[in-house]
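User: Working on a comparison across species. This one is PilZ domain-containing protein from Pseudorhizobium halotolerans. Can you predict its structure so I can line it up against the others?
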Amino acid sequence: MIGTTARSLLSVSLLAVLAGCNSSSPTSGLTGAAPAATAQAEPTPVVQAFCPPVVMREETAIHRAYARGGQDNPEKLMYQASLADATRACTANETTITINVVAQGRIVAGPAVSAGQVNLPVLVEVVDGDNVIYSQTVSFPVELPTTGTQFVFSKPDVQIPNAQGGASRFTRVRLGFDTGSKR
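Assistant: Here's the predicted structure for PilZ domain-containing protein from Pseudorhizobium halotolerans:
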């Protein structure tokens, strides 16, 4: 009986030493009280959200500007701008998804070009199905040389509501030029 008690005591002592080897403090497994520094901290909540993809509005992905009185006259075309590849990045908190929309564009000079800065009316919309939940036209400045150039459009502050589980899977960012007509 004494041999069994001694072996049990030796086993418990060995377990206490081994438990101390796996801790960050060499004495934490050997003392009865836990150090104050190991108190459980509140877990940081993780916010996840669906980041809506960017789609081009085919009917408004090209913008043409004409000299006064020359609407649709190829000889009076000042420039033609187009939007191509686009991407986005999202950040989210409990209530809001902020989308940074970036698109590549090109502007080509026409026969009636006058070099200088032009402001392109870029329309950024966020739709959920058929419902428009965000819409803003950005007057985006581009320096137009007499030949044409590429540009990068960026709108870093598009904000939409972040519902439970993120935005709907039907949510899309639509990008195009504001033509002034009803969509």
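For your comparison, note: The longest helix spans residues 2-21.

User: Helpful, thanks.
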